[in-house]
Hints:
mainly alpha, 71% helix
Amino acid sequence: MPYPSQVTGTTIIETATALIERDGVESLSLARIATALGIRAPSLYRYFDSKSALLQAVNLQTTQDLIAALIEAAASSSQTHADRIMALAHAYRAFAHAHPRAYALAYSMTDPAAQPDPAALAALAQQVQAVVAPITGEAASLAALRGLWALVHGFVILELAGQFQRGGDLTSAYTSAVEAYVRGLSE
């Protein structure tokens, strides 16, 4: 177990995220985080003044990690702009599957105190918007990004919730839906 001097805001966020993934956000408490870190709960207040502030930091980190995965996927696709968007969409789905509870928390949190700063989220989204802009043009890129995000998020959240009950290959269905959207952007 780390010494209290080795605990940082980052290690607290990482520990909270791991506990959320393992046990769900409903089970998360500052006492459980402190126990996992081998410190006393009041030590956490040095970094976060409340559970909401900690959840805000977890949500921001989740969003930053997601955007980094998207940008990396788009950058590693050396094909067309449409291929970069497809790579981005598949990275989005892979991230959500790898971090289902943190992802769901970050994109369903209704408590304003636990939501990340809107300006930080906008700056992150602009990086993804830059991947869409070469197809749509700068003027239409925000609307195109919002449509793409709604499509991939809607599909993923329904999939994670087990709402697709009629069988079939969900990867193929996802790919087809995103390809259709990208074709529409290109026209």
